[in-house]
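Example 3.2
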Amino acid sequence: MTWVEERMSAPKTMFAKIWDRNVVAAVDDEVLLYIDRCLIEEGSVHAFRALKERGLKVWRPAQFTSCADHYVPTGDRTGGVAAIEGTEIRAMVEAIEANSETNGIRHFGMDDPAQGIVHIVGPEQGISQPGLIMTGNDSHASTHGALGALSFGIGWSELTHVMATQTLWQRRPKAMRIAIDGVLPFGVTSKDVIIAIIAEIGIGGATGHVIEYAGSAVRAMTVEQRLTLCNMSIEAGGRAGMVAPDGTTFDYLSGRPYAPKAALWDRAVADWKTLPSDPEAAFDTEISIDAAHIAPMVTWGTNPEQAAPVTERVPDPAEAPDLDSRRTIIDALDYMDLKPGMPLTDIPIDRVFIGSCTNARIEDLRAAAEVAAQGRAVIPVWVVPGSQLVKRQAEAEGLDKIFRLAGFEWREPGCSLCTAINGDILAPGERCASTSNRNFKGRQGPNGRTHLMSPAMAAAAALTGTIADVRALARGS
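Structure, written as tokens:
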């Protein structure tokens, strides 16, 4: 048996199966990968400019999808793109529209009935599919791995290469499997799961790896819950996150606009069923987590690793295991204006943001609305659906009415306060309970303070004005 035959017959991880069949060429420790799909947003302007300077156009525009999401307003959209306040913000929205039209790319613009955040539009349109290698000019392209794809973010120079050649040079990452087994406790969501994972392994715990999420708790998740899980793989340092496609995946994709149809659907599903990791496949790193031990989580610091169950307290730097850890905690507490040892549920909240590519799908809004129906907001709240389709479905279900009755503001789809680059921004010193994915210094505005949590937890904070344990509200205690 030759080494090629041996490699082809050896047990493989799902990552290896997808990677290997997309290799075009190899030179030393780098391979040239064929990129099946590329999803882009306004930040692609630099790549389009570089392409134009070289006298080139996008080679395979049908493999690209563009969305206006980071810079679009989520408040009043009367007047369309031309009425966007701020010359630079408006220019970014105009640029993605013009570049897409020039290059023949399907564009979900601000006035499109299916407009939305690129990482929500891709799955709901059936553009994201199992077995594909996908890229995007946004690190949270990892989201699409929830459908059994290998999907990762790239920089603008790499994007230029993909635009011109539909290929990309890459070094092969390692494979990590994180198995979450058991039944998630009452009040615990996939957002809590991924924050708990990051708190345990650290923001560098998956560096150099593609993560495959497995185990009975993951298999029991809906696709939307898996999308949240894979979305924040980047916050653990991972190159990408993946979940093996199964019946849940196929049911989700069936009938979506860009999913295969008729005989092509049958052929696609037959192929997708071959993708899960072989039983004997070896992973470079294995981690096991008991689902029963996970609680509703909240971040207290300035990165997603600095998190704890909502029932715990702000850490005391004096109890840190080493000097570097102590300094890191002191720095985070100073920025967040928190005192060591204070209960997390004593932390006051100034504003709530329910949205982002992490948690702005219909299931997220249902969970938030269920809590919102129990009271009235005592602080400002923005609910920003992830797409126009999500918005219309939520309105058809009456969720918008629940939010409005509770004093929550119902807005238009976009990235909004997750990135704070479209005019939606925290005031200096303002503290926000957010369903987004990053709590870095200034992420939601200069000197803004962010606490990451699930949609239900964020809604609970809106009703109480503090970080709150949603389980207590749900049980009426």
